[in-house]
Amino acid sequence: xxxxxxxxxxxxxxxxxxxxxxxxxxxxxxxxxxxxxxxxxxxxxxxxxxxxxxxxxxxxxxxxxxxxxxxxxxxxxxxxxxxxxxxxxxxxxxxxxxxxxxxxxxxxxxxxxxxxxxxxxxxxxxxxxxxxxxxxxxxxxxxxxxxxxxxxxxxxxxxxxxxxxxxxxxxxxxxxxxxxxxxxxxxxxxxxxxxxxxxxxxxxxxxxxxxxxxxxxxxxxxxxxxxxxxxxxxxxxxxxxxxxxxxxxxxxxxxxxxxxxxxxxxxxxxxxxxxxxxxxxxxxxxxxxxxxxxxxxxxxxxxxxxxxxxxxxxxxxxxxxxxxxxxxxxxxxxxxxxxxxxxxxxxxxxxxxxxxxxxxxxxxxxxxxxxxxxxxxxxxxxxxxxxxxxxxxxxxxxxxxxxxxxxxxxxxxxxxxxxxxxxxxxxxxxxxxxxxxxxxxxxxxxxxxxxxxxxxxxxxxxxxxxxxxxxxxxxxx
Length: 477
What we know:
Residues 257-384 form the O-antigen ligase-related domain. It holds the Pfam family Wzy_C. Helices cover 69% and strands 1% of the residues. It is an all-alpha fold. It has one domain (99-458). The chain has a two-stranded antiparallel ribbon with strand order 1-2. The longest helix is centred in the middle third of the chain and has 29 residues, at 157-185. It is globular.
């Protein structure tokens, strides 16, 4: 009797589920079954894996799972999505992707990834640390791969819109949770029990950090400046998406924009506040509708929130003061940075994050200088080259910018990427912080696809030679 492949797979999974039910507790068996069903679904539909990543990475970014090695759930889904893509590529089920020659941003990012082999080897040899440099390097490459995932899975605009909705839904859930817990407990450490339930790693150290910053809102992003960076990246997209949609999509976009603005104040992230303000001013100078009005409304809401919440008054009173503790630390970081470059001229690689354990040095709260610290000056210059290539593809044309439904994803993602880069003057999160980096490059992937659709004249034309035909008129074999 012949058994077809579908029946064989069904039998194998039935046996596997039965074994799980016998070996595990009911709760763990149920979660395992859900996880396996999710894995099979992603292998069948890779786009669903990317959508799931977008939702979970914005809601509980550092929730972990132990599958032999401990990884964040977000990165595990990202890796599984790549596995599904490879499987579908073998079966020729994926649409053809344009060549790298017609995707200059992707091409330069690939050069950055290839160059990172050199500082990786240097760090493996020169840095003494307990962590695995190989695992950290591979995780960083996986997080950078969002641009290439977008090129393969988000070819159609409806798929890009679905991904944006997933990003905003995850962000909305994260904001509702964070703000509700902070309002109820009046402490940044109030989120700690929920993070324990999400199986966050290094929980004791995480709880200590949240308690040390208890006057600032806690969140699944663990650090107040980290949620500030994510808000800088996503709020312009939420605003542009909400202003051009109708119904529940409009409510989703504007809800995330309003709650995100409140979260920025409660988390008191200076870099994100300044970054978003500068980008909004730039948008206002380009006459993007509603941005000037939004600046005034934002200022009014800020005053109202400060008057209603006295601890925020104390925080804002010292937030931009030179005597602020974090400001003093940043001055010390810049003062000692030349010593770090002299000690590690080729970068420290991926075994450790700055500062190197056992050294007298400090880290650096700057996106570009952190690239130098980790992978050297050449690595930082390659990152600059990637951003230049991106800007050449995505920049707006001269003159006023009109916000429409057709260009909302492009304009929102462009403004978000600019805000994230400006925030890099104050923080380093978008350089090597896992999950945050993945969201940043996924946003770049969405942005360049929209830019190539809106500005087709900028797409490099790849010359093709038709074999078997004369190259010049009159040429004969």
